[in-house]
Automatic annotation (TrEMBL):
<keyword id="KW-0274">FAD</keyword>
<dbReference type="InterPro" id="IPR023753">
    <property type="entry name" value="FAD/NAD-binding_dom"/>
</dbReference>
<dbReference type="GO" id="GO:0019646">
    <property type="term" value="P:aerobic electron transport chain"/>
</dbReference>
<keyword id="KW-0560">Oxidoreductase</keyword>
<protein>
    <submittedName>
        <fullName>FAD-dependent pyridine nucleotide-disulfide oxidoreductase</fullName>
    </submittedName>
</protein>
<dbReference type="InterPro" id="IPR036188">
    <property type="entry name" value="FAD/NAD-bd_sf"/>
</dbReference>
<dbReference type="Pfam" id="PF07992">
    <property type="entry name" value="Pyr_redox_2"/>
</dbReference>
<keyword id="KW-0285">Flavoprotein</keyword>
<dbReference type="GO" id="GO:0003955">
    <property type="term" value="F:NAD(P)H dehydrogenase (quinone) activity"/>
</dbReference>
<comment type="similarity">
    <text>Belongs to the NADH dehydrogenase family.</text>
</comment>
<feature type="domain" description="FAD/NAD(P)-binding">
    <location>
        <begin position="2"/>
        <end position="309"/>
    </location>
</feature>
<dbReference type="InterPro" id="IPR051169">
    <property type="entry name" value="NADH-Q_oxidoreductase"/>
</dbReference>
Length: 379
């Protein structure tokens, strides 16, 4: 059973590293980079230059999975063909698609041309280099930073930059960065429990971050954005660095006459994570429009991508042994939001529908533990 895994993000790596050498199962993992990125730590790379990648090849020892560095152009599901950008075409019996998401700019005028994003390590390095440059002697540009989007990524990034700004300000004697957090919705961190959200907002304010909720970015230019509040009033904000974290959509790489699309360009899958109308194709992570047995959508998080990957690995081995597939049922262990330094907020889900809320150092430790658990799962 010739199987190809596309993408070495959380879903793809979880699939590959959970596999064991199995008769009748030949697996190839393809990714355009030779390393796996810890995407949930990209804000730390952007703020403090932390190393957030690890080589792929050593992680595959003992799995029976081969690795090839290549870029995918598109996949023809009807022909069972993976088209690579170097011109090669690979056929498959089973396919696992876990190629993540891309930034959604929602057609906002000038945003894609003038804003940075935080999707890959190169993006983090670009932000990190700019922050350091802004504190060098002789720098004359604007030292204001505008972050669009106050979800998990935007909030973690802006607090990391705030902490880094304090460090560099103390070191150089220069004023710190002026930071703006712009959010079209009514609050920051909308998926976080209200009390934890209030604690996070307090931390943002303590850093001196200007929070503009219920303000949408309607236009971006070189060095500025125009925001509009619910009353229609507009304001221009100048900034030397603009970063957009306000939305994602699945990568548009799959072609097929019978594809069933879901929200955000995702592909609808059944309970076994197989694409509807394409039972030989498993779609997981940000590219999948998956639902729990009660119909609730599966969140697009690293935690759930990892679950889906491990479940898909088990189902691939079942297929190779001629066994029936088992349905996937998501579960949430909780979530934690880094707020710079040793500060974090979050909650652990306990048996009986109980949640244990944590803040400060305790939450920070749990955030670290979540990452360590992931590392142990793939090594």
């Amino acid at each position: 059973m010739k199987t190809i895994i596309l993408g070495a993000g959380y879903g793809g790596m979880a699939t590959a590293t959970a596999l064991k050498p199995t008769e009748n199962l030949d697996v190839l993992l393809i990714d355009q980079r030779p390393y796996h990125t810890y995407y949930t730590l990209l804000h730390e790379a952007a703020g403090h230059g932390k190393t957030v990648t690890t080589p792929i090849q050593p992680l595959l020892q003992g799995t029976g999975v081969e690795y090839e560095q290549a870029s995918v152009d598109h996949v023809d599901l009807d022909a069972r063909a993976v088209h690579l950008k170097d011109g090669r075409v690979l056929d498959y019996d089973k396919l696992v698609v876990s190629m993540g998401s891309e930034t959604n700019f929602y057609g906002i005028k000038g945003l894609q041309e003038n804003a940075d994003v935080l999707k890959e390590i190169e993006d983090a390095e670009k932000i990190y280099d700019w922050v350091n440059k802004a504190f060098e002697p002789g720098y004359t540009g604007s030292r204001d930073v505008i972050i669009g989007g106050a979800g998990l990524t935007g909030t973690e990034l802006i607090t990391e930059l705030a902490q880094r700004s304090e460090e560099l300000s103390f070191k150089t004697g220069l004023p710190g960065l002026k930071l703006y957090l712009v959010e079209a919705g009514p609050t920051v961190l909308p998926t976080v429990d209200e009390k934890l959200r209030e604690r996070a907002i307090g931390v943002l304010k303590d850093y001196g971050i200007e929070i503009l909720t219920s303000h949408k970015i309607v236009e971006a230019a070189s060095g500025s954005v125009t925001v509009e509040n619910q009353a229609g009033a507009r304001r221009q904000i100048e900034g030397g660095k603009i970063v957009w974290t306000g939305g994602i959509r699945a990568r548009n790489l799959l072609r097929g006459e019978q594809i069933v699309g879901g929200p955000g360009n995702r592909i609808k899958v059944d309970q076994t994570l197989q694409a509807q109308n394409y039972p030989d194709v498993f779609v997981i992570g940000d590219m999948a429009a998956a639902n729990a047995s009660d119909g609730a959508p599966v969140p697009s998080t690293a935690q759930h991508a990892g679950q889906e990957g491990r479940h898909t690995a088990a189902n691939l081995m079942r297929l190779a042994r001629g066994e029936a597939l088992e349905p996937y049922e998501p579960y949430s262990q909780g979530e934690f939001v880094s707020l710079g330094g040793l500060m974090a907020v979050g909650a652990i889900n306990l048996p009986g529908d109980y949640r244990l809320a944590l803040t400060g150092v305790a939450a920070h430790i749990m955030k670290i533990a979540t990452h360590v658990r992931w590392e142990l799962n793939i090594k």
